[in-house]
Fold this sequence. Notes:
By secondary structure, chain A is of the alpha+beta class.
Amino acid sequence: MAAPASLPPGRNLLTFLTDFGTADTYVGAVKGAMLGVHSNLAIVDLTHEIPPQDVLQGALQLMSAAQHFPSGTVHLAVVDPGVGTDRRGIVVSVGGHTFVGPDNGLLSFAVSRIGTQCGITIPEQGDALLLPEGVNAVVLDEPRFWRQPVAPTFHGRDIFGPVAAHVARGVPMAVLGTRTDRMLKLPFPRPVRHTRHSWSVEIVQVDRYGNLTTCLPGEMARGQLRIIAGQVSITGLQQTYGSTEGPVALIGSAGFLEIAVPGGSAAAELGLQRGDSVQIEME
Amino acid sequence: MAAPASLPPGRNLLTFLTDFGTADTYVGAVKGAMLGVHSNLAIVDLTHEIPPQDVLQGALQLMSAAQHFPSGTVHLAVVDPGVGTDRRGIVVSVGGHTFVGPDNGLLSFAVSRIGTQCGITIPEQGDALLLPEGVNAVVLDEPRFWRQPVAPTFHGRDIFGPVAAHVARGVPMAVLGTRTDRMLKLPFPRPVRHTRHSWSVEIVQVDRYGNLTTCLPGEMARGQLRIIAGQVSITGLQQTYGSTEGPVALIGSAGFLEIAVPGGSAAAELGLQRGDSVQIEME
Amino acid sequence: MAAPASLPPGRNLLTFLTDFGTADTYVGAVKGAMLGVHSNLAIVDLTHEIPPQDVLQGALQLMSAAQHFPSGTVHLAVVDPGVGTDRRGIVVSVGGHTFVGPDNGLLSFAVSRIGTQCGITIPEQGDALLLPEGVNAVVLDEPRFWRQPVAPTFHGRDIFGPVAAHVARGVPMAVLGTRTDRMLKLPFPRPVRHTRHSWSVEIVQVDRYGNLTTCLPGEMARGQLRIIAGQVSITGLQQTYGSTEGPVALIGSAGFLEIAVPGGSAAAELGLQRGDSVQIEME
């Protein structure tokens, strides 16, 4: 098998995730601003349908998708209810991936996961990640890399987009702002242990098919588990959606315990939605 | 007029059609996996809003769009209710276009149409297309071209996407799997003849404007036809949406008889939807 | 700071805005037709969710987004209720930007704004823009640059798309059609003055967050203004969404007076929608 093709010189990959929606042209305006800085950018939309100002959902989706891109990719993410306040903007580089966006926790899950995959454990302290050696971060405080004048309501177009395009062009992080060794993290729901064998886990995502993603990491799930989800009891883990009828539990493609109804919607059939909990019994 | 520009060496076109939706980041994950194999790929989204697991609708949309791309394009399509079961994955090459996806009929209309346009008739036998000389196909059974480990629920990211990227890079089909001379086809609704002059035709698509696409191929429609659609009777074929008031019949851009209401929605005004039938009288 | 990177030879930027939606494959078909003419085109979607046949909304969105792209960009826009009638197709070049689409007013706001930014005032006469020196336009009447046969219902795929791709490749405008010195303009709502200090302004857009964009240009808004919007009174202009509670007024990112509810939806909380008016008192 041949080695992976490399990008031609000067072409760079950049992923883009927002809560802007696609009916307005906010996404287009940011792309225009980036292409004005670096016209040979290959921009890949992750999604622009994060629910408005839902930072947690944006952080989960960014974590799921970013890890599948090759090293060298720049990831721009903007879900920014605090735009125009004094929340910081940051650039964070880990394991060959560089993340650009507001320092409101949006980037924190992705940074932690890429770190873990590279063997870098990133300690937490209160609501912060403490960035160890191997994780570089700067606070954005160099206006010469921004689009002027900066609209106080649209840092995506005027600050984050242009900075991300400069990063993709190879501008060193050190000139984009001031070094920092911490960034905000979001609280990620954890499984709650009730008794030795019994846990509650929260549903953190519902996808288009009605599949329910829980907060239980796949590596914690043991094969003989039993799940009580709404009125339904599910025993054991399946390998696939296609092999059985009725609700099944499996480790989904993002690495968490997932509940699905093959050919149907688990959300609809079990009457469950994001934020609800299911009970798990594991030996 | 100058000759069409060619792609720079190493850049390849790939279209992408799924039922993944655009709110989740499944589409982004597949793109990441493909760009990891072939980073200079130009990916064009056809649509990701095929109704979940609606293989027929995916097959119709792929047929409509694929033919407009230049020779040399790779088409990746994933609508895959059988993911993780023993349905096969295939690559099919015809007339300079290469299709990659599950062998569940999704690719069959597009392969037949491109074949027809190249003068290749592809015979049918039961629920299969029998692939003649000039149509090459392989079953995907070479895991070294897949992303490892393969998630049983996400062959789009782990098998079809990487394989499509390898095809676009120029990996010969023969090394991707085992040669096959048949693929599954979907039943396409045909006009049903009632009397010498009278037919029923099914509505196979309703678009954003409420235009109704029927299964009657344009070449079967004769000018003096009369259509009874819901409570309405339409006489003759128009050349355009813009020239008259009220419901009109015309040959739509995909080559089938279409019913439209200029400036309005035929679906809403006639109370018709996909799967309904209209009556046609032709001399 | 390094100079902006330039596109590699032969790669060109093209933006694309329509009312086609993204569930059908109309957008994909146009892209295929364009890439058949110029396969090294970098296509950026502005939006395809303009409400069906809503030319005014398309014109506003195109104006908002096009200005952020670098000089040299081609902008293809298709919202075309008159497709197949005798409305003209045009190409208009101003300030390094080239616009392609139907001559139904869709392009008029963007052409005027780019003109203004380049110091070119474009006079109006009735429902026309009179194009002065520095603004070049041709009527599309050279079928050899079109895809044949031209479907009377799909000029986006068969005329505008191919022509835009030829423009991006560098085909001179003069060979694409006949020179013209006028194009249709849309009426843009203007603030209506009631008394010396009192105005009515129309809401021209509601975005995904429920922010209300009015027709009052930012440069007309004076700081001590008071807005009566529905049951609510707002005093003064804020610099940002983030700094206060309740409804605020500010100059939005497109340059017009905007009403927003930080963390909420102004449209929902004030019960206002597109087409409604708000009252403004300015000293």
